[in-house]
Amino acid sequence: MGWNSWNRFGADIDERLIRETAETMVATGMRDAGYRYVVIDDAWQAPARDANGELVPDPVRFPSGMRALADHVHGQGLRFGLYTDAGTRTCQGRPGSLGDEIRDARRFAEWGVDYVKVDWCHTEGLSAPPTYEKWCLAFQRADRPMVLSICEWGRSRPWEWAREVGHLWRTTGDIQDRWSSVLGILDRQVDLHRYAGPDGWNDPDMLEVGNGGMTEAEYRSHFSLWAMLAAPLMAGNDVRRMSDATRAILMAPEVIAIDQDPSGRQGRRISRDEGGEVWARELDDADARAVLLFARGDGPARLGVSWSELGWPAGARVAVRDVWRRQDLGAFVAGFETTVAPHAVAFLRVVR
Length: 352
Hints:
The protein is of the alpha/beta class. The protein folds into 2 domains: 2-259, Alpha-Beta Barrel (TIM Barrel); 268-351, Golgi alpha-mannosidase II (Immunoglobulin-like). It has 10 helices and 16 strands. It has helices spanning 6-9, 15-27, 30-33, 66-75, 101-111, 128-142, 179-187, 216-228, 244-250, 253-259, and strands spanning 2-4, 37-39, 79-85, 115-119, 147-150, 168-170, 201-203, 234-235, 268-272, 277-282, 288-294, 301-306, 317-322, 327-333, 335-340, 345-351. The strands form 3 sheets. It has an 8-stranded parallel beta sheet. The protein has a 6-stranded antiparallel beta sheet with strand order 9-10-11-16-13-14. It has a two-stranded antiparallel sheet with strand order 12-15. β9 and β10 (277-282) form a beta hairpin. α5 (101-111) crosses α6 (128-142) and α8 runs parallel beside α10 (253-259). The model has no long low-confidence stretch (mean pLDDT 98).
């Protein structure tokens, strides 16, 4: 869990933004809710490497340097992340790391970096598995624990090989702040649940919650779906100016608890019809499940789940709790159903 600069700010970043973001994550309670990484995405670099071949930060936007910025973030009880690219240039045309993986990993370690996102622009002729294996080796030689975020957009089916190389891997192209993008990404996750687990995560990309392109209900659904997917929760909004509604979504404690469930099991879609979808996720408590009733269409949907679909006896008596409302709904025999508003969810924790 953490925050990344790209979705809201793109290349318009500087050290003041990062300092203020880290401080706000503490002041608002985001850090205590679980958001720990502050990650600077593309465009932090100077246009060229220095005379020694080292990456250097843009001297205008980051005049204090990355070590000082990392120290400030660490001083807030947070962890510090940076972006680079596996190719010759980054997506914004800054120096890439091709051929300099060991040098750059050591540089990041010297700066106190805890998390590195490695993108895939300008990689013509490269194969992703051996390229990211180089990064894995470079991290080992850097002698500092760092998270390796693999970002080749799912092109080479990283869920099949990346667990031995990195810690999380993008399964899709970039998310956009619109409902159709969330749905498109969701549909690409349906068959990936068997590949995710502790220390290796399918990454459907960062959150758009609070960036203004969707309704509050859609953002709540977006956050709920990512929690069902056991996805990394990387906020991408301007946390310094977020509304109460955005804060309530990003810091919903029982939703975060499901996302961060110790079992690490990714949810799966168990049924779908014209009205919507039902997703279920096994939790660390063998007698508990997370269930998401999702009305993805433009009309309200009557959606339900039977206990037999969750692997329990059809006549079981099961306690149902609404995790958004943080309210117990009672005990139900055989199953549960309710009407869900368009583009909305009913998010449940059920215990036998």
